[in-house]
Amino acid sequence: MINQRNTAQLMPLFEAAPSLPERASLPSSRPCRLLLVDDEPRLLASLCALLADSGHELHTATCGSEAVALLEQMPFDLALLDLRLPDFGGHQIMDVMNRRQLDTNVIVLSGETGIEGAIGALKRGAYDYLRKPYGREELLSTVENALRQRRLEADNKHIAQQLERSEKLYRYLVDSSPDIIYTLNAEGRFSFINDRAQQLLGLSRSELIGNHYSDLVHDEDMERAYYVFNERRVGDRASRNIELRLKSAALRDKGPAVENTLVTLSFNSMGMYGNAKQTEGAEFFGTYGVARDVTERKRAEAMISYHAYHDILTDLPNRMLFKDRLGLAIMQSKRKETELAVMFIDLDRFKLVNDTLGHIRGDELLQQVATRLKAALRQGDTLARLGGDEFTIFLPELLNRDDAHVVARKALECLQKSFTLAGSEVHISASIGIAVYPHDGETIDELLCHADMAMYQVKGQGKNGYSFYEPSLHEVSYQKITLEQSLRRALENDEFEMYYQPQVDRPTGCIIGVEGLMRWHHPERGLLSAGEFLPFAEENGLMTPISDWMLKAACRDLALWNTQVEERVRLSLNVSPQYLDCGDFVEKMKTALNRHGLSPSQIEVEITENICIRNPQYAIEQLNKLGQIGVSVAIDDFGTGYSSLAYLHRFPVHTIKIDQSFIREIQHMHAHYPVVLAIISIAKGLNLNVVAEGVETETQAAYLEQVGCTTMQGFLYYRPVSSSQFLQLLRKNAARCA
């Protein structure tokens, strides 16, 4: 009989004991731990002997308190309990195990014949109930079955835990995905969708599950959406990267425009079937898909595309877009048999503004110009910026040329008003060339080229105006191109030659100096003067190599003259401002003088007074360097430029040459010619030499001598001659002026 007093004493102890941690799973590879509880030593020993060969770890207890102590000390896989023990029996031990949630299977071994003991054991969770005496095989089989079931339960529990962890992991991945992941049933209704849909579309799962996909798709994309959301193919044949626009409630508060309520998604989808390995004959369950938000990418692509066809500074169409639109307009004009006009606009004086106020103010000026020009156009006209200060316009469907006249005049008028830049008022103008389709060209390039030619004609006629293309301009342009090509070959073929025009002392008639003048023996056009080809050389970057040739040739000729005549003559050379701007000009001069053994005093460099408006300080530095090596400086064509007398006073100048335009005005000996008198007075006041150019009549020579200018150069005395002819003149001069 169970001792009730001992049980009452033990119960508080059992209830206060902490529960053991959850038992680990039961790997089949390790031996099991068994607890054998019986108060009969002989039976307990027999039970141990019976289970000794099983390979399990066996522990024994002879009373209930000992058994509970062992159960609390270590985990057991199986306990074999006798119902009757000295202190408290198996039922009470099982009650303690249940309260403490001790994970141990129980087989009850009892000699009781009543059914109550078995029922009580099974109610408390016993695996089985064996009545004593039991057979050996029965016991071993029951123990093995109990342990096998425990292994199965442990395996199932482990699998369930793995499944639970996997489900949590995959749900976390699905809900944390940057993409929308969804499934549709066979009817096209959402059966699953992850949390990303609410972030992108502003719609919760409850608002989407059960609804048809068409509720989300933009109307214009519905046809493509049908193939995406009803995809039945799998594998490589399934839909890939199909872009659709979906309606988004998340963006509605960001702006009223319809585009702001749309997001663009790239869809990949495939069909779902009952048999995952085989679709033929398998039941179609619906569609599985993944959708990635590409809205920002599409906006970035649109922005890149926009900038590829628009000028960043003015936001006008660029050359590429202008040509594209012009090409379409030409096709329409050809179909409708109408005219269109192309205008080429170049801003006058923009470079001066840009160089004076800086590029930032220059950019502001271009932006203001673009705004004004757009306002002057008709609806349907296209304004573009080709680059720099060049703009183009095309006017589609001209009724007549008067329309182009009107737009050109408006463009000029809007640009004549002052511009405000950094608090300063700036004035500019424009030169506009116009070509009309189909009379002036039938292609884009022809129209632009001819409009450009017409614009340059305006530039040459004084700027600030407009002109239509004329066929004669093409011939002039062709001649310029031909001349430029020939000019490049002239250096290679040694077609240049130096000619020399003597400078004469009027009272004695002796040659006291000479001016070097370039000539070009053109293969087709004959002998060309410098004025016929040097402007083209300046425009096309050929001034430096041509000037290098001139310097070497002139010094070579001067050295030859020095060996032939005793009298030393001073040689004047015209130097282009471009050549003077070269940082190594003075070094080139020194090299040429040293190479030919010439005295610097024999060389005089002629410059135009306009040189001071380019970079006066740099020009002064270069001229001072020339003076330091002994080369003198003359101002050529004095009185025709824009330099101030203050700069003239600062220049290391030795000679002033009166331009022939002023000399040509001298017609009468006793008339009054104030400009000539003023230039001579300036020269005398600054203690400078003065030379009159272009003297062609005796009246001009006599008048100049009377007012104080005795050094003259012109056809009255000598025309320009070759080096060998000038050498003969020097010999005659030496004999006469000895």
From TrEMBL:
Residues covered by the Response regulatory domain: 33-147
Modified residues (4-aspartylphosphate): D82
Key words, A-Z: Phosphoprotein
Domain PAS: 166-223
Signal peptide: none
Pfam family, one: Response_reg
Keyword Phosphoprotein: yes
Protein's recorded name: Response regulator receiver modulated diguanylate cyclase/phosphodiesterase with PAS/PAC sensor(S)
Organism whose genome encodes this protein: Noviherbaspirillum suwonense
